[in-house]
Each structure stands twice: as C-alpha cells, then as structure tokens.
Amino acid sequence: GGLFVPPVEAVANSLLYATGAMALAVVVGGLASVVVVHAGRRSGRALDVALMVPLGTSAVTLGFGMLIALDEPPLDLRSSRLVIPVAQAIVGIPFVVRTLVPALRAVDPRQREAAAMLGASPARARLEVDVPVALRTLVVGAAFAFAISLGEFGATSFLARPDAPTVPVAMFRLLGRPGTALHGQAMALGAVLAALTTLSVLVIERLRPRDALGW
C-alpha cells in the first residue's frame, strides 16, 4: 500500500541510519570533548556552547538547511543515504559531549603524572589513564545518540528517500492514509520503535556512572 516498502525494511533502515549516526556522533563528539576539556578556558567554553547549538535549532530547519546547502559537488549529498546519518549525528553530538566532558574533567591529573614518571609520553599517559575512565561514559553517549537517531523525524522527513523511509517517516506516511490496516501497521511500527528506544534507555541506565556524571 501506502508505504512503498515492507515495514521490516523501514525498521532495518532506522537501525542502519541510527548506527551510522551513532558512530559519527561518537567520533566527532569524542574528539570535541577532548578539545573542550584540554583547551583554554575561554576557547573551550566557546566550543562547548557552539556544540550545543543543534539542541536549540529545530530539526526541520536542520534538514531543510542541508537540502539547500548540500546541493553542489563535492558536497552534494541530497541523493545519498549518507545525508540522513549526518543529520542525525548533528543532533546526537551534543548528547555525547554532555556525557563525556564531565567524565574527562573528573580524571585525576595525578594519575597522568604518575604515568609520566613511569616513562609514559603525554599521549601514552592520556591513553592509559583517560580512555579507561571515559570509555563507559562514551558508551552511554553512544546509546543516547542511537536512541535519539531512532526517533528523529524532523530532519529525516526532509531527507529520506521515498524508497528508504525510517520508522518515524513510515509511521507518518501510514497515518496520513485512510484504512484500518495501514493504521494498524503504523501502530505496530510504533511498538517496535518504543521497544528499541526502551532497550537503548536500559543500556544507558545500566552503564551510566552516577558519580562521574552527577546524575
């Protein structure tokens, strides 16, 4: 009917896009968090604020802006499936940063000094000390980004191709067409989305270090 693709394919699209967006958000958000923590006070604060801008911007505006901005080579991504994970990652990056920055700031510098005294280079000291402390919170940030990407609709509704909808886009299409069967499919997709999101939340609740994040 009105979906053009099987509902299972819409679920697969959502999982694929959310996984890609999570990976991008973790890489960009992780590197940005390191810069925020170790840069100068003013520059770190300015970057921290700049990274929060997507939270105050409508996702619809983000999606529409990407359609307008990414219209010429080599950045013409409008027909590429990559554009959706990029848009969703932009929304997820602030959550990775807000999760990771407090954990990095909580690292005791004396541990790095001890590693340096044992002969570790500055880079090796940060790798050996910071990474184990931050890894668990990074997984929490990744789960946040994944859950947010699964349910993202505003930007995705502008960017999703008709033959590759995500679950929220598919639900919107189904609910916009008459027919009890189509509405039933939409509700079934909603239940799947709720289950996937709940699983992500359970991962966050299981792994989040309360003492480090202060939650």
Structural account:
The protein starts with 6 loop residues before the first helix and ends with a helix. 76% of the residues lie in helices and 0% in strands. It is elongated, with a radius of gyration of 20 Å. The protein has 215 residues and is an all-alpha fold. The model has no long low-confidence stretch (mean pLDDT 83).
Set out the fold topology:
Layout: H1 7-38, H2 41-51, H3 59-69, H4 83-105, H5 109-117, H6 122-151, H7 154-159, H8 167-175, H9 180-207, H10 210-213
Helix pairs in contact: 1-2, 1-4, 1-6, 4-6, 5-6, 6-9, 8-9
Describe the structure in brief.
This protein has 215 residues and is an all-alpha fold. The protein is built from ten helices and no strands.
Tags for this model:
215 residues; mainly alpha; 10 helices
Helix content: over 70%
Categorize the overall geometry: elongated
Gyration radius over CA: 20 Å
End-to-end Cα distance, whole Å, is 46 Å
Portion of residues in beta strands equals under 5%
Largest sheet: none
By helix and strand content, what is the structural category?
Answer: mainly alpha
The total of helices stands at 10
Spans of at least 5 consecutive residues with low confidence = none
Output the helix-strand order: HHHHHHHHHH
State mean pLDDT (0 to 100 scale).
83
Secondary structure: number of strands: 0
